[in-house]
Amino acid sequence: MQNFIKSKLAMLIIAVFLYGQSHAGNNCWKPVEEVSLSGLGKMNRNTIPSTARFYELNMQQLQSLLQQAPNRGQQSNLIIDFPDAYGKMNAFRVYASPIMPAVLSSKYPMIKTYCAQGIDDPTATMRFSVTQFGLHCMTLSGTNPTNYIDTYTKDLNYYIVYDKSSLANNVRNFECLTDEDAELPSMRNSVAGINNNTDDQLLRTYRLALTCTAEYGNIFATTPGNEKADIMAQMTITMNRVNGVYERDLAITMEFVPNNDTLIFYGNTSQDPWSNEWNTKTAQVCDQYIGVNNYDIGHNFNTTGGGNAGCIACVCLSSSQSGTHKGRGMTGSANPTGDPFDIDYVAHEMGHQYGGYHIMNTCSRSGSGNTEVEPCSGSSIMGYAGICSVNIQAHSDDDFNYVNVRDISANIQNGSSTCAVTTALTNNPPTADAGADFTIPKGTAFVLEGTATDADGMASLTYNWCQNDAAQAPSSSSPQPTWAVGPLSRAIKPGTSPNRYMPNLRSVVLKNLYPTWEKTPDVARTLNYSFIVRDNDVNGGQTASDLMQVTVASSGPFVVTSQNTPTNWNAGATETVTWNVAGTDVAPVNSPFVNIFLSLDSGFTYPYTLATNVPNNGSANVVVPPGAASPWGRVMVRGAGNIFYALNGSYINIQASEFVMNMSNSTQSVCPPNDITYNFMYNTFLAFNETTVFSVSGLPAGATGTFTPATAVNDSTPVQLLITGLTPSMTGTYNLTITGTSPSVTKSTSVTLDILDVNLPAATLTLPADGSSGIASVATLTWQAALSPGTLFDIEVATDSLFTNVIASATGISTNTFTTNPLLSSTTYYWHVKSYNSCFANSFSASWSFTTNNCSNLASANVPVVIPSSGAPTVTSTLNIASAGTITDVNVVGLTGTHTWISDLTISIKSPQNTTVTLFDQICGNENDFDCNFDDAAAPGALPCPPVGGGTYKAVTPLSVFNGQQAAGNWTLTITDHFNSDGGSLNGWGLEICTTTPTGIETLVVSTSMILYPNPVKELLNMNVAGQKGEHIVVEIKNIAGQVIKAINVLANTKVSVDVQDLSAGMYFVTATGSHVETQRFIKAK
């Protein structure tokens, strides 16, 4: 045992010695000022960073050190420092990682490639090359933007160091032309056993045949006699960087084929094989020069402004040089150097070849249908950053979205691209847990929280949350909070935190819940998210992922209502935090408790927990922690066991305090002439022991406040304030100030006293006037009353004056207004109101009546109507209203249909008196389909593109031109298709029409005594069917073809709810059969 211990100690000493030996004296870098380099020739660059640092490099010393680098996969004791863009030197463990096979490397010995693992930053991985063009480095990290080191001067002695954020936001002249119709098995839900992660502990090496046109070659063939070496060096610089991303995210590396230099062309540009076509010709060249069985992926570099992978998921395949073939990829740029070319272009196009689809949701939407998860241009590798009309940023981030890792992993592990040579990795994959699914209130911030494990250690892990909703957004603009489908948030780079605040915490701190690329949802919808974990191992990365869903409820927003102006708190004091519960304590959010946290740095971190699992009732008393002094305090209230939260709106100045008066209840109400007491605890801090005298101000004249005891010295002294002499004439709210005064310190706290009215006047009804008619079906009722402290109201609405059939009621209303649910049309209702407080209660007021207007929802039965794809057709659909009546309002509802390029269409509505209103006219370019409503009362603004989602908008011509006309007769909807080749279908439309006398619809609608709401509906359809008392009515829900989908028996005049979540989006009809038959239409929203 003694010898074993000595042996282990000796090994440790040797290891320490080797580290010191390899690391000592390896600083090859010397910082310099850029101005000192003004007289030297500069290397050609694609972009110039806005900020950078400059260094002189002792290349001879570096190359001497690099001779010690072992091949990747072996133990390395070589530690070398490299500068970053922020002036710091960072240590890396260096390995040789050749991307040339031995035979090619021997021809070009000046070209070497390396990889390195961060030591100071374990999340950092570096790829660098040393060639006749100098040193080129790329460092990926979870803590900083990607850093680069490039040769700056032509003498190869001076280098520029910068990060990606400093690159210019230049417009990119590039378009990916990869076939959007190509298919990949991992896109089909029916395929079983698909892998989602890079997790099988294998590094896959693919043989790369990389060709170039003479135009590309001539840019870099600068050394006579060594032209191919120069071109090969530039290709190596690009592919070394590409490999850095592919190895980290996908455990894919690419190695040049042994005779890759035979694919290099330069000189006379008319003598290379390419002219105006690059995909098929590249496959032909690779097959001819290399042999179809001697490479796995072929690609061409050129100087055009575009890229085309030729096919998707076709690495290893060679079915047809003009179709599915591994050698059809190409990337072109007028200046094919640097990160814009290497990552934005090459990594993107090769991503297609390996099985990745586009991720842009709207701009040039061309993904698989399951991959368009990033808004507008997207920002990850498979996006179009900098190319679209609406861009998130100018250049792509150097990481693959979860959907691309999912699909490429599936393809190279179990799909069509499995020909790689595999090398076993000792690196264990991490695990990922995105947590449970949650329901949150609308208009409210939330935080996504993941966890991970890794048997190899956690220090190198990075984390990435991304929205995973591929459904097409309603328009091509930046995300909007009212979107019910599509992505609301951008993708971000992997980072060291497993949590992501939505929107980002900085925006929430600045009271902005709607930053451009991270919108808080303001409507009920579902949000899907992916959580991916990377272990960033330079020898071959492994990943893990998990999915979760956030359901946004229609209730909300959840808001902190206290401390929204600058506030002073005393450390150790008891304070009250209030918030708007917004229905979050009950279903569907179901958060009956909240936690409350305190920040001292404006809201970025929360080191103090003020309350845990307190009732989610809108108010809680919290104790300010002693010692928590800061002028930048903020409070967070968060649903316990949930992910939604809200911050107060202003800074809290928290002061260290000698003493505080902690009130047990800061608001009290009293019925005069009764007395009232306030109790508080006198607490001392900072060894304070002076005598404090108590006083109160703000009492009504004639009232008296008495403290027991009148003074205090000791900590934790209970004190009572008794207020006497109150009279009914003092009714009102009083803000009292309780002050403690000692010889050196004066402190105050505020309390509220509500003196209630013991002779509370009865409520007086005001609107709608008694006996009024034509009232909207959703009626707003108001009354006058003395809104003295503590006053509450009860209201009842009934169909009879004796209130035996109360159809709506509310108790404990604190305002003087009430809005009904939709009421039956042409029906008389009665209502009355009662006022009360805890001292006195009135009887119900005298009742008033009103009669609702005669409005009907009428659906056309003359659908669907086909819009032919040939010619320029005009199609019509009619709706017949049988009964007379003078129109007071018309809205077009449920206008749905399909058509490609809806800019071809003009849609109008014509009344029986031949008055025509244009609804929309040739809008939205090449967008598809329509699903919308039209109402003069809609918010101003253009229709979204495409106009889908069931929103309500203003028509081109006001619908009010129909007012005063007769409703009876045929109404005609006309669709004019101005162009050939595109067709579609009108699937549904209807009218919401109000008249001064009853209306009806031939066979389809007999009366309007059936109320359906909400309409459109997503989940629960509420209905109230009028009929005789006690009558049982059969209710059937039918699709547009007349098939019965659901059937139930209901009691007349009773509200019932029907779950329609399982219905597909579209138009449906509800038929009620009892003593009479009626049918109404509703729209099932997506």
Task: Write up this protein.
This protein has 9 helices and 67 strands. A 9-stranded antiparallel β-sheet has the order 1-2-9-8-7-6-5-4-3, with helices on both faces. Strands 19, 22, 26, 28, 29, 31, 32 and 33 form an 8-stranded mixed β-sheet that branches. Strands 10, 11, 12, 13, 14, 15 and 16 form a 7-stranded mixed β-sheet that branches. Helix 4 packs across helix 5 and helix 5 (227-250) crosses helix 7 (338-354). The longest helix has 24 residues, at 227-250.
Overall mean pLDDT stands at 90
List low-pLDDT spans.
1-22, 180-194, 998-1008
Measured by DSSP, the beta-strand proportion falls in 35-45%
Helical fraction? 10-25%
Question: What is the first-to-last residue Cα distance?
Answer: 73 Å
What would you call the shape?
flat
Counting helices, strands and paired strands, the structural category is mainly beta
Could you give the order of strands across the largest sheet? 1-2-9-8-7-6-5-4-3
Radius of gyration: 37 Å
Largest sheet: 9 strands, antiparallel
* Oligomeric state of this protein: single chain
- Beta strand count: 67
SS element count, helices: 9
